Amino acid sequence: MNNGGEMQQLLIVDDDIDIATTLKEIFEDEGYDVHCEPNGMRALQFLKSQHDKSWVVLLDLMMPVMDGFEFRAKQKQEPELSHIPVVMMSAGMREFPEAMLDGAKAFISKPIQLRNLLSVIEAQK
After folding, report:
1. Of 1, 27, 43, 68, which residue is most buried, by most CB within 10 angstroms?
2. Is 5 exposed, middle or buried (0-12, 13-18, 19+ CB in 10 A)?
3. CA 42 to mean position of chain CA atoms
4. Inter-helix orientation angle 68-77/40-49, to 10°
5. For 29, how many CA atoms within 13 A lie in the half-sphere containing its CB?
6. Cis link prior to 111 (omega < 30° from 0)?
7. What is the C-alpha to C-alpha distance for residues 74 and 89, in angstroms, rounded to an integer?
8. pLDDT, tens digit, for every residue of 55-112?
């Protein structure tokens, strides 16, 4: 899917190691550079350490340590991170009120429909 330009970078933030590993393999097969973190705090630390901020974040909402909502609140307070696009995902929610997206680009419900997820992430380029 990547047309030979800059490699798309995807940060998967999910405490479910099986989901994170599966998504990592799928997106690497699609030509993405993928990094995984188990919670929002580690994800923020990782993003702050990156000089190249061209990441897209695939963010689970329900996680220990720092959940997706707290991650978004802190990300938006950081000028060097606030522009990074975020796609939220969560189990147990079919509908997600627009107001709760809090500036995120999209919401994906689990179990994930892969084609839908790929097109949503692709649209963030």
Report:
1. 43
2. exposed
3. 13
4. 30
5. 7
6. yes
7. 18
8. 999 999 888 999 988 999 999 999 999 999 999 988 866 555 555 566 788 878 888 8
Q: Is 86 strand, coil or helix?
A: strand
Q: What are the structure tokens assigned to 69, written together?
A: 């909502």
φ and ψ at residue 47, rounded to 5 degrees: -60, -40
For residues 19 and 60, give the distance between their C-alpha atoms in angstroms, rounded to a whole number: 10
Q: Cα–Cα distances in Å, from 120 out to 49, 64, 111?
A: 26, 26, 15
Task: Pick the closest to residue 108 from 85, 125, 91 (CA basis).
Answer: 91
User: Phi and psi (nearest 5°) for 26?
Assistant: -60, -50
pTM: 0.86
- Residue 86 contacts residue 101 (beta carbons within 8 Å): no
Report how far apart, in Å, the C-alpha atoms of 46 and of each of 5, 53, 115 are: 24, 11, 27
